[in-house]
Amino acid sequence: MEHIFFPPLSRIAVCGGTHGNEMSGVYLVREWQKQKVDESGALSITTVLSNPPAVNVCRRYTQTDLNRCFTNALLSSPITDTTPYEMRRAQELNAQLGPKGSEKAMDLLIDIHNTTANMGLCLIFYSSDLMMLHIYKYIQSKMPSVPVRAIIMDIPLSEAFSLESVGKHGFAIEVGPQPNGVLRADIFNLVKKSLDLAFEWIQEFNSGCTFKAGEVEAFTFVKSVDYPRDPATGEITAAIHPQLQDADFKLLRRGDPIFLSFSGETVKYDGEDNYPYFVNECAYYESKTAFKLAEKTTMTFPSISVKN
Amino acid sequence: MSSYSNTARVNEARRVAIFGGTHGNEMSGVTLVNLWMKNGIEIQRKGVEVKPFITNPKAVEKCTRYVDTDLNRAFTPENLSAPTGDDLPYEVQRAQEINRMFGPKGSPEAYDVIFDLHNTTSNMGCTLILESSKDYFNLQMMNYIKKAIAPASCLVLLNEHPLLKYSTSRSVAKHPVGLEVGPQPQGVLRSNIFEAMRVILKHALDFIEMFNEGVEFPPCSVEVFRVSERIDYPRDANGNIIAMVHPNLQDCDWEPLNPGDPMFQMFDGKTIHYQGSGTVYPTFINEAAYYEKQQAFVTTRRETLVASSIRKA
């Protein structure tokens, strides 16, 4: 692969509270705003509390999920009296940190999330962003004591619906397990460390370092699996099986138990070997997802360096 | 045999209720009660009526702790005697309704036993909550449950503190029993937590059935953890939290906390140490719902309670 040059990164946005009950980002942004953190070396840092009304009531959202509002189509739909709060807010954030796809957008947008699933530290970003593979590899190499994984979304940016797609480069930091409404020090410390490492990488990049070509393992979404439900009422009739609970990213094979019904029956997995993740994520009961399945792939990336 | 051993005669427990959804996002109780309302065969016992009941249906529907106010703090004498009206907070109306159906609190018509099912984000394991150190029936039941599930553990939390105790939904009954199982995030159903709660209830109902049949339970000692003090997060002048439960204390419910041990970690990494005068046993460490109640954890002291033998009257 041919060497790629990227312009320097100088304007970084750090967002928290995109989901108002995911506390690491809420407290990190609040703390940085209190300490008036607006730079790191030569980098300019903008901190944003994405969904203040949701943060105030410690709920994921007030009317609709903010982190599904950033497709190009939704960002350009007209606002009316009945437009949900989060859709308006998405357009405000796009004006402040974007506009998505334009020259004025933040060089890098980092959005902090938590999950109730046992996913460790995950960086979520888009397949089109080759620079992100370097940042991921760097963070992973400097945090050997925790699992650091990449979940790569293979969708065109125009269809990307999450906040981090607003920046020229962007990624979400997803850390778990942490219950909604709870702030765990160990999880907070991981988030802070990964941010510090990202800034470190950026400063090295900006100063002219060449980052060598290489390859890295990453996970890409295959499909979602719903809970077993009562056909008449739609109510859930089983819980995630104890062997699958907390087993995010452990290979799931045909015949492995996935659900234990309330009446004691085991439901077995009947698909291709894949990697489960977002296992028993609280917010996904509503979107009919007991867990997601991913393929593990090897991503190759070219060498990169800055071109001013 | 000690001089305690005059057998206490206690009335049969003829009417028992199992409450789920007192907090609408604590899923084990919601799920178990809904299951048993559809098919109650598992909770049937000879000689006793066992009624499963969702106490806060609106909160359950929204998967939230409460709608207007915490139902599990709402059973105060003021609330229960307030004139009924639609302008009352939803949970106060519910408390009055529940008091009519399962009480009145303090009267001879009240239900004999109410089990109130809860989950916590704290690493408390299986915990039984006792409201009175003199309730020998409850102490004997808890002793029975602990022995039945051994070697698995089930600890007893006693909240008799004059300032820290609160008016729970189960307090409507003559013998209120809280079941608190964690850790489980709000809104999440974990299979192991669900099954653990189910097993505890099974043993509790077995005890009641045997008691009603005339079995005499000999005197017993029960180790309990008595609530001592509520410890809040360090806060700034505006009331904002400025430190987190320290990683060394996080998940260490029921383990000794000694003076000088790390307790909180500030956002800059600095440690705040426990400054109490002696060893305490913290619990409800980092419970999501207690941030708004100014509680990072509660300290307890270990005590052994003795219950006399009991037999049905």
TrEMBL record, chain A:
Q: Key word Cell membrane present in the record?
A: yes
The record's EC number reads 3.5.1.114
GO cellular component terms attached to this protein's record: apical plasma membrane; cytosol
Q: Which organism is it from?
A: Parambassis ranga
* The UniProt record lists the keyword Zinc: yes
**Active site residues per record:** 174 (proton donor/acceptor)
Q: Which domain of life is it from?
A: Eukaryota
Domain Succinylglutamate desuccinylase/Aspartoacylase catalytic: where? 10-192
Name-wise, this protein is N-acyl-aromatic-L-amino acid amidohydrolase
First-tier enzyme category under EC: hydrolase
The cofactor note from the UniProt entry for this protein is: Binds 1 zinc ion per subunit.
Q: Which CDD domains match?
A: M14_ASPA
Spell out the PANTHER family in the cross-references: ASPARTOACYLASE, N-ACYL-AROMATIC-L-AMINO ACID AMIDOHYDROLASE (CARBOXYLATE-FORMING)
Reaction(s) the record says it catalyses: an N-acyl-aromatic L-alpha-amino acid + H2O = an aromatic L-alpha-amino acid + a carboxylate; an N-acetyl-L-cysteine-S-conjugate + H2O = an S-substituted L-cysteine + acetate
Tell me a Gene Ontology molecular-function term this record carries: hydrolase activity, acting on ester bonds
User: Where Zn(2+) is bound, by residue?
Assistant: 19, 22, 113
| Localization in the cell | Apical cell membrane; Cytoplasm
Q: Which cofactor does it need?
A: Zn(2+)
AstE/AspA barrel-sandwich hybrid domain span: 215-296
The Swiss-Prot or TrEMBL record describes its family as follows: Belongs to the AspA/AstE family. Aspartoacylase subfamily.
Alphabetically sorted, this entry's keywords are: Cell membrane, Cytoplasm, Hydrolase, Membrane, Metal-binding, Zinc
**In what way does this protein cross or attach to the membrane?**
Peripheral membrane protein
| UniProt xrefs under Pfam families | AstE_AspA_cat, AstE_AspA_hybrid
From TrEMBL, chain B:
CDD domains the record matches: M14_ASPA
What GO terms fall under cellular component here?
Answer: cytosol; nucleus
Instruction: List locations, semicolon-separated.
Output: Cytoplasm; Nucleus
Which cofactors does the annotated protein need, by name?
Zn(2+)
Known SUPFAM superfamilies for this protein? Zn-dependent exopeptidases
What does the Swiss-Prot or TrEMBL cofactor note state? Answer: Binds 1 zinc ion per subunit.
Domain spans labelled AstE/AspA barrel-sandwich hybrid: 221-301
Instruction: Output this protein's name.
Output: Aspartoacylase
Record the organism. Parambassis ranga
